[in-house]
Amino acid sequence: MSVTSKKGLDYWLPKLVLSPTVAIAIIFIYGFIIWTSVISLTDSTILPRYDFVGFEQYVKLFQNPRWLSSLWNLVVFGTLFIGVCMVVGLVLAILLDQQIRAEGALRTVYLYPMALSFIVTGTVWKWLLNPTVGIERFIHNLGWESFQFDWIVNPDMAIYTVVIAGVWQSSGFVMAIFLAGLRGIDTSIIKAAQLDGASLFSVYSRIIIPSMRPVFFSAFIMLAHLAIKSFDLIVALTGGGPGNATDVPAIFMYQFSFQRGRLGIGAASAVIMLMTILAILIPYLYSELRKPKDA
Amino acid sequence: MAELNIKNVNKSFGTTDVLKGINLDIQDGEFIILVGPSGCGKSTLLNCIAGLEDVTSGDIMIGDDNVTYAAPKDRDIAMVFQSYALYPNMNVRKNIAFGLEIRKMPKDEIAAEVERVAKLLQIENLLDRKPSQLSGGQRQRVAMGRALARRPKTYLFDEPLSNLDAKLRVEMRTEMKKLHQRLGTTIVYVTHDQIEAMTLADRIAVMKDGIVQQFGTPQQVYDDPANIFVAGFMGSPSMNFLECSVVKTADGFGVQIESQGKTFELAADPAQADLSAYEGKNVVLGIRPEQITHVMPHVESQPFVTRVPVKIEVTEPTGADTLVLTHINGQECECRVHPTEAGNPGEQMDLLFNMSKAVFFDAQTENRI
């Protein structure tokens, strides 16, 4: 009797302790994913209603020019943000890996923006980029009066200011990932390549960078999901403007669901965003989880 | 020709002197082994020869060229690393070809060279595999293949066998020696394993604290060690060191030892050492375990052989011999006897001390007398 009760406690205690977390996760993450999917199939407006209309909201969504332009903005922002972050992060990591002095301090400096929230980053860059108080005015005061840097108020260029702020915030983190990857490489490989006569450039381009493919993949996944769900940075920096010039799907979703009282179309846009992330994540998880069997 | 001359090389990292005035003259085609405990500077010396570390002062000559300040790639050397350092993203073929591609060798020649090397090392069936798909021994072969492909004048090996299991290590050791005999190039090989050093080397440089303690053939290093460190480092089980006092004997000098309260005089071979200056003083007697054996009549009649009864403390059978541990002068002493002659721990046993190859060291300087 005592044996079974003891075994019972050992058996149940971890489950008991973990169950609230599991329950919360199931309800508030997966439950609401399902709920959102259901809502996206109804004609809900301000409040949820359960009159099912099939995929009508999705059809409406893709007929909405604002949604299409927000998708295009996401493509532009995502590509540039991921690309520039990777390049900047990799260059910083390679430079930091040359056994320089004060590496620890410099690493912290580059990593520090990561400690700020996107709201802070957005606000700071809003001021910096504002033509009347920021960089443009500073240069004017230095005496270069014709200098123009008004991207943030220019509808054609505003999306690039989001890229600038995003890169500033995230490239340090990418650098840290790459630096860890570089540190994982056996230094005698570099020595061997030197003896083989390879220049430093070809050591990196032909050996080190190709062998860091998994690291690139991780960095890409991290940046891709940051890009797709980017919301706070854009709200703080441009508020989606000027006009709708920096609209992205997350802002579209927020505005339609909670400000314009069109919950159905907002839910549909949220489901599309989830699908986009899954489209990137599933191949990644598949390749990651399959690997141990191969190796 | 590829003589390798290392002239008065010093290397410091900050205030730490790692190499202190290294001088080595290595002949063309010699197999040289740098051996010593970890931290003795042997790997640093190898890196200096390779050009991966700059020397603080001194000169390194390969043939007639002073390469002290030449880039690694201009020294015409190849190196095999302890971790093998294979390029993880390339298959075996590309690994071997990489150095040749960098040197802009025509494609068909590269292919031919890869084939030649693969055949030599019997890795033809591995050419399309990635390093991660190879076993330790196979990686080791590929690393050697990469070195061989460039046909350099000098090969450097940095503990190439230390990551292999014991059996494979012995196999690769033999192969390494065969390979050297076939290629006839100069090899500098770093190891901390004195058996590897003894079996492979034409000459051994025993290093300690950044100084070459002795540079000579394996037999010289074994029979004529320059000091206690070299004597103790080479040979397994290691030489016995017994501190004892020098006494005058009937026809020369000898040392006095004590076993179980009785004293014995061991006559020293004057050809081994002149002990006249040490009469009455203490010296360190160095005698290898195989020079202390069970009683064999044909040995007992030889000069400089003394019979000493001892008490057996521990026995360690190795198969071919049994090692018997006893106490002489209150110090541990290991003896190598025939398994059937060895008694049991606690028992008495008569041993023959053969002094014809014994060596003596100054108790203060630890140098050879």
Name the descriptors.
heterodimer, A: 295 residues, mainly alpha, MetI-like fold, 13 helices, B: 369 residues, Rossmann fold, 2 domains, six-stranded mixed sheet
Description:
- The complex is a heterodimer of chains A (295) and B (369).
- In chain A, 73% of the residues lie in helices and 0% in strands.
- Chain A contains 13 helices and no strands.
- The mean pLDDT of chain A is 86.
- In chain B, 24% of the residues lie in helices and 35% in strands.
- In chain B, helix 2 (92-102) packs across helix 3, helix 2 (92-102) runs parallel beside helix 4 (136-149) and helix 3 (107-121) packs across helix 4.
- Chain B has nine helices and 21 strands.
- Chain B folds into two domains: 4-229, 3-Layer(aba) Sandwich (Rossmann fold), CATH 3.40.50; 240-362, OB fold (Dihydrolipoamide Acetyltransferase, E2P) (Beta Barrel), CATH 2.40.50.
- The longest helix of chain B is centred in the middle third of the chain and has 18 residues, at 166-183.
- At the A-B interface, helix 8 and helix 9 of A face strand 6 and helix 2 of B.
